[in-house]
Design a protein that fits this description.
By secondary structure, this protein is an alpha/beta fold. It has 11 helices and 8 strands. Strand 7, helix 6 and strand 8 form a beta-alpha-beta unit.
């Protein structure tokens, strides 16, 4: 465990994002770092997380109360469908005045509901939107903050060497940017999957790629397609949960969200296959998916 003179940090959710942040904090003005993850409650899960934490200066705790004891900065980094539950279950153990960075990909209404829980026990809620994959930039991954404590929170993250900008004064300002950006980013991923998987099954993938290259030569279609399939294979279930929150965001704005709902279905379907992307090009990844569909 790190024992510097900086703030005590707790990670609620110790998956890809939490581990990346902790790795990046080495050498920063950080005190002790603790973590709690629901995987600790599964057989063998706690030992795996402890090993991951040991390499990053993180003490993985077996319960929320232990993890949150004395923490001034709490990063909630669970899946979108668990964000409100995490706030409910952690709130009784939160130190007064602690900053709660809700970095989950949730609809603004979901964030506002979680904010009510955290603020209700004297915590300071910060709507936090992580705006890019956490690798390779780790704790320097760009993020947006919003809410009444955003300016204070941005200054605190600056001390930790993080790259945060204030998006606005309201809870929901940051998450709205994240949600609506995902309509495009995750939508393009799903379009790639539907196009390339169908083309491969029809045996015309070379012709389809050639046509796309002729129309848009600035895009490396095979490389981009392989990358997008990798993201869905590695993170499909998490992305599907996020996209259901995007549907809720669109509906709150008066849009039906039908296209985005179909995008969520594609991410869910590929994620449920539980196929590691491995090394490979677009055709190899498409073949692994098609063999299981």
């Amino acid at each position: 465990m790190q024992t510097g003179t900086g703030p005590k940090i707790t990670l609620i959710g110790f998956g890809e994002a939490g581990q990346a942040f902790a790795q990046g904090w080495h050498g920063q003005a950080v005190g002790a770092i603790s973590a709690f993850d629901l995987k600790s409650l599964h057989p063998g899960g706690h030992d795996l997380l402890v090993r991951a934490g040991a390499g990053r200066g993180v003490t993985v705790c077996g319960d929320r109360e232990q993890a949150l004891a004395g923490a001034s900065h709490v990063f909630c980094l669970v899946t979108a469908d668990q964000a409100r539950r995490a706030a409910d279950e952690c709130a009784p153990h939160l130190a007064p005045g602690a900053l709660w960075f809700d970095g989950n990909s949730c609809a603004p209404e979901t964030k506002r509901a979680a904010a009510g829980v955290i603020e209700g026990v004297g915590g300071r809620y910060v709507d936090t939107a992580i705006m890019a994959p956490v690798h390779p930039r780790l704790h320097r991954t760009p993020m947006l903050l919003s809410g009444p404590h955003a300016d204070t929170a941005a200054a605190q993250l600056g001390v930790l060497g993080m790259a945060a900008q204030v998006a606005g004064p309201g809870v929901g300002d940051a998450s709205s940017v994240k949600m609506l950006r995902s309509v495009m980013i995750k939508g393009i991923e799903a379009l790639h999957a539907e196009c390339f998987l169908a083309a491969r099954r029809a045996g015309v993938e070379a012709q389809v790629l050639a046509s796309l290259m002729a129309s848009n030569p600035e895009i490396d279609w095979p490389r981009q397609g392989a990358y997008n399939l990798e993201r869905m294979m590695s993170h499909g279930l998490r992305r599907a949960a996020e996209m259901r929150e995007v549907v809720a965001t669109l509906q709150d704005l008066g849009f039906p969200g039908a296209v985005t709902a179909a995008v969520a279905d594609w991410h869910q379907r590929i994620g449920e296959l539980a196929i590691g992307p491995g090394e490979g090009d677009l055709v190899q990844r498409a073949d692994r998916i098609l063999a299981r569909l």
